[in-house]
Design brief:
Number of strands: 0
Helix content: over 70%
Number of helices: 2
Shape: rod-shaped
Strand content: under 5%
Largest sheet: none
Structural class: mainly alpha
Length: 96
Amino acid sequence: MNSEELTDLEKELERLRTKKKGRLWKTVAIVVLLVGLLVFLYDIFQDLEDQKRLVSEYQTKIKKLEIENRSLKEELLRCRQGQTKEEGLKDARNSP
């Protein structure tokens, strides 16, 4: 091998090493972006789970308030008819 061929081979080797390093950096960058995307999506799904939990809690509170509201409306109706809550409870206990 003469020196010109040797120089060409060294240049080719250096070019391949540089190309390999470039591919490595691209791969690392892609992996970092994918991990970031996964973390972002995980955070979104956690927020959705929190929202579902809050909706469920509020639905339970709404149902309780609706029951309380219905009870208060019935009490108001009895009071308008001249019957107090205590009298209504007495009547309810005495009725079969």
